[in-house]
Amino acid sequence: MKYEINIENEKKYDVIVVGSGPAGVASAVSAARNGAKVLIIEALGRLGGISTSGYMSHFTGTVGNKLYHEIIERAAKLNRFPCDELKYIDPEMLTLTYIEMLKEAGAEILLYTTFCDVIMDGNKLIGIICHNKSGFCTFFADAIIDASGDGDVAFKCGAEYTKGRESDGKMQPATLMFKVGGVDMERAVFPGAFEHLIETEKGELQALAKEKLPHPAGHALLYKSTIPGIVTCNMTNVTNIDGTDALSLTEAEIVCRSQMLPIVDFLREYVPGYEKCYIIGSASLIGIRETRHFRGLHTLNETEIASAYQHEDYVVYDAYFNFDVHNVDGAGLDKTGSQKHFKQTKGYTIPYGCLVPEKIDGLLLSGRNISGTHIAHSNFRAMPICIGIGEAAGAAAALAVKQNIPLRDVSPKDIQKIIKMEARF
């Protein structure tokens, strides 16, 4: 494909990060703090991806890598109202936290800029082509980190991948988060999991949701926020969606928005404390749980997670979450989901090979697009773990530049020294 490139816009960096979700921000902060000249590129007008533009309610799961803990503690300090747990997200304060951390680290930020294509030298990625209000522009780097969620950069490079679950390619459903105000917090209930059953005068809430809400919606997930009287709703649902296809994304947006008013009507009629609730805002980014799984030097599987396997070449440690597989055909958990039966109480590790594409040089994977099986992905896609992955990717990229070696040759032991350092805040 031909592009009219503005030569004046060509710039060279040590590290470029594509995507500013939790994994992307962590990648950029980590690389910049370790001495790299960094550019982070985001298609939207704000940083944070799903954690901010997606109106996420809270961080689920945890990880040992230090940067995650710094992020939630710094964001909590900005919150205007006291909150009993650090995990709850105020999208505005979290966005400000990301900006502060990137600026302090010295990373350059470029918003409203869409990644379009790659520039290759054989099997090595050396640059990217983007588009924004200024036109097409090119950026070159010694190391490029794909934190796009769907692995758009890796896809353009020709990296091998599978999509969805191995048996049939089906992917987890999509959700558009929204917030309601006017909730009586003294009486309100907060079903936080599909297995969380709450009996009311009119019946059990999960059963009522399945009966009363429009298919494929049909569950009740309600979470406190950092602001009194406001609750985050994780209740819209759309199946058979491909997050890498624009028409499919459009359909998902329309279907989920069509469910919002019926959900509010349901809350008012059946859920204690929500009798006078109303919509105050909705996400500007739909929540895509699963798309491409790229083939890396190591593919993380569910057995490694369930057994809390400790890899010697780990770059993410003490990662903890359950197998959160949403029903690919409707509401609630998929029959392969294991939330209720997840027994492992220790944290597991992710080896460096999961971040390194098998056949592409100059590129690292960061976030939910790393190399893993469908079931394993349902665990490591949790935002704290993605932040841990991002911190490792950024450290690896900075080390590769500093040592003038290929990304695949970076020593995991050197990465471990960085990610286990005390947080600098």
Structural overview:
The chain has 425 residues and is α/β, with parallel strands linked by helices. It has two domains: 290 residues, FAD/NAD(P)-binding domain, CATH 3.50.50.60; 105 residues. Helix content is 28%, strand content 19%. The protein is built from ten helices and 17 strands. Strands 1, 2, 3, 4, 5, 6 and 17 form a seven-stranded mixed β-sheet that branches. Strands 11-12-8-13 form a four-stranded antiparallel β-sheet, with helices on one face. A two-stranded antiparallel ribbon has the order 7-14. Helix 1 packs parallel to helix 3, helix 1 packs parallel to helix 9 and helix 9 packs across helix 10. The longest helix is centred in the middle third of the chain and has 25 residues.
What labels would you give this structure?
alpha/beta; FAD/NAD(P)-binding domain; 10 helices; 7-stranded mixed β-sheet; 4-stranded antiparallel β-sheet
What's a quick, concise take on this entry?
The protein has 425 residues and is an alpha/beta fold.
Shape: globular
Which structural category do the helix and sheet elements fall into? alpha/beta
Query: Helicity range of the residues?
Result: 25-40%
Q: From the coordinates shown, what is the CATH architecture of the largest domain?
A: 3-Layer(bba) Sandwich
Stretches where pLDDT falls below 50 for ≥5 residues? Answer: none
Topology:
Layout: E1 11-18, H1 22-33, E2 38-41, H2 66-78, H3 91-105, E3 108-110, E4 114-121, E5 124-132, E6 135-146, H4 152-157, E7 161-163, E8 178-181, E9 199-200, E10 203-204, H5 205-212, E11 222-224, E12 231-233, H6 246-270, E13 278-282, E14 292-294, H7 302-306, E15 314-319, E16 348-351, E17 363-365, H8 374-380, H9 383-403, H10 412-419
Parallel strand pairs: 1-2, 1-6, 2-3, 6-17
Antiparallel strand pairs: 4-5, 5-6, 7-14, 8-12, 8-13, 9-10, 11-12, 15-16
Helix pairs in contact: 1-3, 1-9, 2-3, 9-10
